[in-house]
Write a structure and sequence with these properties.
The structure is a single chain. Helix 9 packs across helix 12. The radius of gyration is 37 Å and the shape is elongated. Helices cover 51% and strands 14% of the residues. Strand 17 and strand 18 form a beta hairpin. The strands form five sheets. A seven-stranded antiparallel β-sheet has the order 7-10-13-8-2-18-17, with helices on one face. A five-stranded antiparallel β-sheet has the order 9-3-16-19-20. With 661 residues, it is α+β, with helices and mostly antiparallel strands.
């Protein structure tokens, strides 16, 4: 029984360490090392029968762990949860290596619980649910084992307890009980009111640091994130992936000063949603409906496919302007879920822009600005229309310039001059800046836009996985009769990493976990309740169709209830009688153990032989003694006491040593 208790406690401790590793990545190596030490200590304890650490060493180690906690918090992490997790992990392993009593087992259970509690407050990983479910199963198992062990020790049986007491039937029963607890927990989780508003709405994780979407964008802003695979958002597309590539637009910038872009016009319109719906215009020829799950970012920008005209979500207000920029009042510190509708038919009719979008004053002030103007005239190839000039310059950059994240230094007066006149290589910001300024010098209003390319398509979930490395910038030019149109002068040199089916299934699992568990909201409760009400109404209608139209009076209802009550009473009585019959037919454990031991010796009870006839035939005093106890218990209801049970174990031991006849 000691080995059972130690095994269960060891599993619970490893679950606690696993939960601790989910709290923060920085301490995962320490916790992994502690797990190895814990496994080694468990093996030593099981092999030698004694704990690996002496009590005096435990006291000193616990004091050292506390000193480590203080130093860790003050000098390393500055995070009480992270430091506390490492401290609890140390205490857990130290206590596991020095288990001597049931109280030590209980301490391990408690420390593991606090580690799981810390993980619950710090992670949104779907793995946490598996850890929690396993902890519930094994902690119930562990408490049963420890309580039985204590009761058996108090009764004087102790090590004389049968080996199969903790066999498969008990484990399956406790697993079923644990499953019922988990189901009840989920039911409570679904039914309790949501309180995710205001200061009560906790953030799911620290916001991702991302550049290129603020009021100013330097020329190297996006290049710094184009090697980062961190997921920024998942975008579900109604109707499946469209044939043309999608650009998820974030912001537009209109003033270039030689080193970067900024926004000259401020966001001038605050929109209050009507039942969570924000409208910026009307639909176009082709509407794309998107469902966006945006990770916490350190920017106020709201992303959607270009030409978004409507947004719906749990948002209080939005800022917008005439450039199509949509921003939140402040940076979100939680996952955002919203729907967006965009017109992807191309350019949208718009009024002619003001002169700021033709501002090429930087080219006038730059020593090499006149060369860029001449380059734009040559690249336009004699085109006179705005659309013709834009297409010609876009093609010129595609054919004559090269994409790289490590461009050479060309010795020009600025990054734009280096790119266009000297090195002819750069990343998307160089291409977008070069085309925008060339268009302006040619008399075509232009600006740059920043956002993300569509990313990787998950066919199992029907959504795009958009990462930091998908950050991109492009050009928007005003074309008479068409409005603002998108042009992308960057050569298509992006290598999109393709993942297999297993990764996509796991990502879909994480996505569903975040959607239906982490972000489960009051609106989800309401939708679930309405769906249940609809199903219940349908079932009621089906039953009404099967019953006669004539409604019974009060006497008829009472008669039906009386018949139902009688049926239930008869069923309960039959069930109790069946249970009593089974209990009467089932022989006590000690008698079955005796029959099993005798059978192994070749002394089997005949099919028609009574217990007393069998005992008289063998003529063994020990067999006669156990048979008499069995007959008194079965027919007289006289159960053996504790002393008799202890002596019975000794009697069974002698029967097991009998020689074959």
């Amino acid at each position: 029984m000691r080995s059972h208790a130690l095994a269960v406690t060891s599993i619970i401790s490893l679950l606690g360490l696993w939960a601790g590793s989910l709290v923060e990545a920085a301490g995962s190596r320490l916790i992994s090392s502690l797990s190895v030490i814990a496994v080694a200590g468990i093996a030593y304890n099981l092999a030698s029968g004694k704990p690996a650490l002496r009590l005096s060493f435990w006291n000193a180690a616990a004091l050292a762990a506390f000193v480590f906690l203080v130093a860790d918090y003050l000098a390393i992490s500055r995070d009480i949860i992270a430091s506390g997790t490492r401290f609890l992990s140390l205490i857990l392993v130290l206590k596991l290596l020095s288990i001597r009593s049931g109280r030590d087992h209980a301490i391990v259970f408690a420390v593991a619980f606090f580690l799981i509690l810390a993980a619950a407050a710090s992670t949104v990983s779907a793995v946490f649910f598996a850890v929690l479910a396993l902890y519930i199963v094994f902690v119930i198992w562990g408490m049963v084992v420890l309580n039985l062990r204590r009761d058996l020790d108090d009764s004087g049986i102790g090590t004389g307890a049968p080996e199969d007491l903790f066999g498969l039937p008990l484990f399956l029963s406790l697993t079923a009980l644990s499953a019922a607890c988990i189901v009840l927990t989920l039911a409570v989780f679904i039914s309790i009111p949501r309180m995710g508003v205001g200061i009560l709405e906790a953030g799911s994780r620290a916001p991702l640091n991302i550049s290129g979407f603020s009021e100013r964008m330097e020329m190297d802003s996006i290049a710094g994130v184009q090697l980062d695979p961190a997921i920024v958002m998942r975008v579900e597309i109604k109707g499946g992936s469209p044939p043309e590539p999608l650009y998820f637009r974030g912001a537009s910038l209109d003033f270039f000063d030689g080193s970067g872009w900024s926004r000259r016009a401020s966001l001038d319109r605050l929109i209050k949603g009507v039942d969570g719906v924000f409208t910026f215009g009307g639909p176009g020829k082709r509407t794309l409906e998107q469902k966006v799950w945006l990770e916490p970012l350190d920017t106020e920008v709201l992303f959607a496919a270009s030409n978004a005209y409507m947004v719906e979500g749990r948002l209080q207000s939005l800022w917008t302007d005439g450039s199509g920029n949509i921003r939140l009042p402040s940076a979100p510190f939680r996952r955002l879920e919203y729907a967006a509708w965009s017109d992807i038919s191309g350019g949208r009719p718009a009024r002619a822009p003001d002169g700021s979008y033709l501002d090429a004053s930087y080219l006038v002030s730059s020593p090499e600005g006149h060369l860029i103007t001449e380059l734009a005239r040559a690249a336009s190839d004699g085109r006179t229309s705005a659309l013709g000039k834009a297409l010609a310059i876009e093609e010129f950059l595609h054919k004559n310039y090269y994409y790289t994240l490590t461009p050479r230094s060309g010795g020009g007066s600025g990054p734009l001059e280096d790119f266009l006149l000297h090195t002819k290589e750069g990343w998307c910001e160089h291409f977008a800046t070069g085309m925008a300024m060339m268009l302006r010098s040619a008399g075509v209003p232009a600006r740059i836009a920043t956002g993300f390319l569509e990313g990787e398509w998950n066919e199992y979930g029907g959504y795009f996985i958009v990462r930091k490395q998908d950050a991109h910038s492009w050009v928007e030019a005003y074309i008479d009769g068409q409005g603002w149109m998108r042009f992308d002068p960057t050569p298509s040199s992006r290598r999109l990493e393709r993942h297999g089916a297993l990764f996509m299934y796991l990502d879909l699992l994480r996505h569903r976990w975040n959607r239906h568990i982490v972000n489960f909201s009051f609106s989800d409760q309401r939708a679930l309740a309405l769906a249940f009400e609809e199903k219940a109404s349908g079932l009621k209608g089906l039953l009404a169709g099967l019953l006669p139209d004539k409604r019974p009076g009060i006497k008829g209802v009472l008669a039906v209830l009386l018949v139902f009550a009688l049926a239930v009473s008869v069923a309960v009585m039959a069930l109790r009688r069946a249970r009593k019959g089974n209990a009467a037919q089932k022989a006590p454990r000690y008698y079955m153990e005796m029959l099993k031991a005798l059978s192994l010796k070749g002394m089997r009870k005949g099919p028609g032989e009574t217990p007393r006839e069998f005992a008289d035939r063998l003529g063994e005093a020990d067999v006669v003694q156990i048979t008499e106890l069995y007959l008194r218990e079965r027919y007289g209801g006289e159960r053996p006491g504790r002393v008799a049970l202890v002596r019975m174990e000794e009697t069974l031991a002698r029967i097991r040593k009998l020689k074959r006849p």
